[in-house]
Amino acid sequence: MSSTTILIIICVYFGLLLIISNLVSKKGTDNDTFFKANKNSKWYLVAFGMIGTALSGVTFISVPGEVGNPDLQFKYFQFVLGNAIGMIVVATILLPLYYRMNLTSIYSYIEKRLGIVSYKTAASIFLISRTIGSAFRLYLVVIVLQKFVFDDFGIPFALTVLISLALIFAYTYRGGLKTIIITDTLQTFFLVSSVFLTIIFICNSLDLSFIQAFETVKESNYSKIFFFDDISKGNYFWKQLLGGMFVTIAMIGLDQDLMQKNLSCKNIGEAQKNMFVFTGIFVVINIFFLSVGALLYIYAEKNGIAIPMVDGSPRTDLLFPEIAFHHLTIIPAVVFLLGLTAATFATTDSALTALTTSFCVDFLGMDKAENQNKPNIVRTRHFVHIGFSILMFLVIIIFNSLNDKSVVTMIFKVASYTYGPLLGLYAFGLLMKTKSVHDKFVPLICIISPIICLLISQNSAALLGNYKIDNELIIFNGLITFLGLLLISKPATENTRF
Fold this sequence. Notes:
By secondary structure, this protein is mainly α. About 70% of the residues lie in helices and about 0% in strands. β1 and β2 (about 315) form a beta hairpin. α3 (about 45-65) packs parallel to α12 (about 270-305), α6 (about 115-150) packs antiparallel against α14 (about 330-360) and α11 crosses α14 (about 330-360).
């Protein structure tokens, strides 16, 4: 498929999103619409749309790409099972708390439970974490578009990033969450459809029926799921399961992005229904992504396709687009492109809206009654939205100059450092009912904890007898934060004991 064809498809795709955005935003562009979608979102639309937000381009490309590593294979599914447990914890413990307190920003809980400095610290952690995480995800897709499209037109990488962010800004800045609930439903449809259709196209190319494909994947060297052999390795089952559980609690349950969508439902019953359905679909769809990875490597072996190289190093992230664009027919290529675009932009548009919401509510107090009728308050929100778009642009440019690893590995590694203090803050608030903290020392604890974790991770082999810390790093981080908060604790008052 030519670069011009790909570009035309992308333009048509974004044109459709802009039309939807304009239709939705006609019904309202105020802050209540932007932040909470007027609290009347249908649970099934939220559940389906959250699939696109949670999966992203990382799942679409990096997860299939890592299947080819003998030490990884289907290892990621262990992590996904942990994700599922974490989602159940979120649905049964955190969501009822947020609905009971009628929160717009979930970090308002920390304000009421621990104090204003703790509140600002938690919100700041989210802003840093989500900005970095979303930038990583968008970066992955941009390098694909750059390699297969924009290089042919002589467009530099920085401009490709700028164009992508400008398009996302264009269809989100007015309607915010209300727009995203609708557009992400469409984008998730493209994402899910592309996974199933890709499997069909590859099976046809390999002359395999669905049953034969299943057996081929099962008997291949790519399908090992459970790793119990060596506790010191990163692929060990319990490391992945527990890491997946706590990463999910932090990255979904303590993340304004995903929770903002849940809080747009009419009531707690619908929000929980959304989470349970979302969990089931999430597990199933990841099985198919891993299967796509195995089939891609089988196809590559049969047809003598090498893993693409970038700066002299193999990039497994690019195997999927390499096969889709250069070795399959135009229809599979179009399907892949739509799936990839939908996966990543569903994540990024949601992140930009959540970042804007958090800053406007947590730092500018736009949800407070005395501020809601201030003149130009919507214009201020627009400036914040632009600011985070620019910030994400800068982070992607920096990351492009530094990254040399698989993006999926980098995202969860960074998340372990940035989301760990959030995990510790909420654990303390929920478990230590009779205690509060000396508020002014909380930022120091939240800075020291990731630094200690970094030192432990870098020296784990020497300190822990060749034990390699992987996704369970977030547990260490949360625990260290929790213990640090205990050191600066004090008896809770009537106002903070709940």
